[in-house]
Amino acid sequence: MELPKEYDYNTIEEKWLNTWQDSMYYFDWDSQKPRFIIDTPPPYPTGNFHIGNALNWCYIDFVARYKRMHGYNVMFPEGWDCHGLPTEVKVEEAHGITKSQVSREEFRRLCVELTEKNIGRMRKSLRRLGFSIDWSNEYITMEPAYFGKTQKSFVQMYENDMIYQQNHPVNWCPRCETAIAFAEVEYDSRDTILNYLNFDKLKIATTRPELLAACVAVAVNPDDKRYSGYVDTEVEVPVFGHRVRVIADKSVDPSFGTGVVMICTFGDKQDVRWWVEHKLPLRKAIDKTGKMTELAGKYEGMNTVECKKAIIEDMKKAGVLYKQEKLPQNVGLCWRCKTPIEILSERQWFVRIIQEDILNTANQVTWVPDYMKVRLENWAGTMEWDWCISRQRIFATPIPAWYCRECGKTKVAKEEWLPLDPTQKAPPAACECGSTEFRGEEDVLDTWMDSSISALHVAGWLSDRPLLLPTQLRPQGYDIIRTWSFYTILRSKALLGTKPWDTILLNGMVLGEDGHKMSKSRNNFVVPEEVIKQYGADAFRQWAAIGGTTGSDIIFSWKDVVAGSRFLQKLWSIVRFSLPHISDEPATFTPVDLWLLSKLNRLVKESTGKMDAYQFDETFKAVRGFAWDILADNYIELAKSRLYGDGEGKNAARYTLFITIETLSRLLAPFLPYFSEEVYSHLREGSVHQQAWPQADESLIDQNAEAAGELIKEITAAIRRYKSEHGMALNAPLGEIEIYSTITDASDIAGAANTEIRLKIGTPDFEFAPIGIKPNMKVLGKTYRNKAKSIAEALTNTNPGLAASGSVTVQIEGENITLDPSCFILEKEMLLKGKAVDVLEAGNAVIVITR
Questions:
Q1: Per-residue model confidence as pLDDT tens digits over 603-656
Q2: CA 424 to CA 442: how far, in whole Å?
């Protein structure tokens, strides 16, 4: 069947999407094959599969398909990281409610309903992009089968003293009204105002006058002689009037402001350090909603911005504020809503951070690229507090704990009781005090507590299957190294004492065509569905393959997608031409066949090495270059005459072309699943995705064969240029061609030149016959002046054979004038065996064309 001229990606991709069976990609838990388990990132189910997700999944699919072709038992599971604030906000917007207006159970039901709908939409996108996902191992973190494991991990770590509860300063988002971990704090550089205050008998500078009510001490550097007499005295806090002690601390910078700092509970992490070290009292001036407490007096109920403005006005009137100046400052923001965070002291649940264990485990993992490990090391080195894991939300994994109404003690669930929601179900055992009255814990777990056991879950932890840990690969963006990577390593080490994966593969961020982060406000936002609709999934996957290296940011480029579409059309044209001319019957190869096969097997060898190193861009570029430049532009053009001819040479070309097209379909299978499947279906039975990755035939990788093929290519190109320069059609015959070189077969050159070729050994014995004399007017004019024109005419009419001796004598107005060789140029033509010829050079070959 002849293929249509144009590659119709819509028809072909739809055809195979409806043909492929999910079971092709199922992981076999009982298989004896080497396993390759991928700890796939579970995306947040917003309903839209973001282009950054799509890039990551392309990388994962390249690996999964490649490993299957290498005989691995691959698990490429799909998870969904469901819990979190964004869904709560969407539910409130969609139903016109707040979470406090309905029961916790009803609000969670609405969140589950929305999440299930979004997951359904995103599944369609994943399938359309051709990802070979193992849907038999899909997991959804909001389902009891998964969050029960999260709860069991909590219980195990609690029993091993890795989780504890206490009052401690935490990062707090007043808009989300929840604690957040350090990893969830983003920093933004902003200008603020440094306010200089008369602070009783001292002068201080502060950026947060709204925290004066929370002032618990004033600090100076012990080496700052300006204030040595004030240490251990007391000063009165302006506006509020309470007295605080002056303390000495080496960490105070004497050059900042006045060299005197106000310690509040809490303005920043430094306040927390001083508060702990000096055992200072706690004064809460800000509540969980970001409003001032009764401690703030007349400012109670104001938010921090309103309070700051009011206090500054009051201090100006009272003469307390005497100077203000601008100051650049890094402001901590909530990663979700971008609201400036506060530090509040609240009773929360924490996971102990043991940096040494985390770093030692991270060193057992292979990082791709390796320099990315520094990000985790740097993050671990800056952590000062343990991981706060409790959140004041509803749609998340419930913390499996209760509080005794009688004695107030905390009761943590037993593993066998789980999963459960403590606000809906009481513990089956009484408190130690004998009471059976409990209040269920209403706080929930940080969503990273769910996703940080993903590796354990897919490896069979807490199931009736064997535990296959560590997994082989964790693919993810570098932006969540300090969260997902860090927490997964922590949890795997704490729960099972091992690393979670052998290798972690990092991808960069996708930027808009303008080089900036994608956003709708910048009008540089692209969704994968838009690209697929215009150019198909395989064109999109090409952009992902060649657009950037692992670990590096990648700019989305419509130009690259269009180039990918054009390459598909080029490949399609190659296949369309080749199909009527291929055969899987072995034959004796010609030098040009051996040249192509050597190049092909070298490509296979190099591509295998690059794929093993996760160098997808280098692999695809190499395959594309081979298909376009070597196969299409050279081999097919050289072999066409054989393909349209008869004899053994035709059979060799047909077999060579079959091997090459079939091998290319397998090399391209991880990248272009739809296209490669369509091509393979015209070559063999079965799916290309169930075939082996090509193996390089070392016996066919031959530098001499490649050199011979390159020479044949150069000779053919030289003859074509000759025809073009002489205004001849490329298929026009030439008289006679002799080639002096080391090649042994000129059949493809003869076919391309449409002329008989004779191969010769050695060098041609050329003769040079004079055919004309060309005057050198520059010399004649200078030497003979007014006679120069007459001499030139005489030279032109002189028999060129007379100039063979070197000089020429001409007669001008009866005078014989002898001219030396500088006065003319003797034009010659090359002769071979008495015939005039043109001579071309290509590499070390001499090409002789008889006119």
A1: 999 999 999 999 999 999 999 999 999 999 999 999 999 999 888 999 999 999
A2: 10
Rounded (10°) CA dihedral 123, 127, 133, 137: 30
Name the residue type at position 509. Answer: M
| Nearest-angstrom CA–CA distance, 9 and 23 | 24
Q: Are strands 202-206 and 390-391 parallel, antiparallel or unpaired?
A: unpaired
| Residue 432 near residue 422 (C-beta atoms within 8 A) | no
With residue 296 as reference, give the H or E element that holds it.
Answer: none
- Overall residue count recorded for the chain in this entry: 851
Residue 707: partners with Cβ closer than 8 Å, 6 or more residues away: none
- The answer to whether 701 and 816 have CB atoms below 8 angstroms apart is no
CA distance 469 to 456: 7
Whole-angstrom distance, CA of residue 147 vs CA of residue 820? 103
Question: What is d(CA 249, CA 221) in angstroms, rounded to the nearest whole number?
Answer: 5
740 strand-pairing partners: 760, 846
Let me know: does 421 contact 398? Beta carbons within 8 Å: yes
Q: Please check whether residue 173 is in contact with residue 334, taking contact to mean a CB–CB distance below 8 angstroms.
A: yes
Question: DSSP secondary structure string, 386-429?
Answer: -EE-EES-SSSPBP-EEEETTT--EEEPPGGG-S--TTT---SS
Report the alpha-carbon angle 162-168-174, nearest 5.
Answer: 115
Parallel/antiparallel/unpaired status of strands 185-199 and 321-334: antiparallel
End-to-end CA distance of the chain: give it in Å, rounded.
Answer: 45
Q: Which two tokens stand for residue 378?
A: 């740097």
Give every strand in the sheet of 260-264, ordered side by side: 234-236, 243-248, 215-220, 260-264
Q: What is the pLDDT of residue 395?
A: 96
Bridge partners of residue 739, in order along the sequence: 759, 847
Ordered by where they begin, the domains of the chain are: 24-161+356-379+451-508 (3.40.50.620), 192-336 (3.90.740.10), 540-701 (1.10.730.10), 728-851 (3.30.720.200)
Q: How many angstroms separate the CA atoms of 474 and 88, rounded?
A: 29
Beta strands per DSSP E along 239-314: 243-248, 260-264
Q: Is the peptide bond before 169 cis (omega within 30 degrees of 0)?
A: no
Confidence of residue 65 (pLDDT cuts 50, 70, 90): very high
CB 675 within 8 A of CB 3: no
What is the CB-side half-sphere exposure of residue 422 using CA atoms within 13 A? Answer: 25
Nearest to 508 by CA among 611, 619, 368, 618: 368
Question: Closest Cα to residue 532, out of 115, 66, 58?
Answer: 58
Return the H-helix or E-strand segment holding 815. strand 815-819
Is 236:242 a contact under the CB 8 Å cutoff?
yes
Residue matched to tokens 């979700």: 336
pLDDT for 1 beyond 70: no
Whether pTM > 0.90 for this model: the answer is no
Q: Residue 296 corresponds to which tokens in the numbers above?
A: 């703030």
- Residue 85 confidence (pLDDT) above 90: no
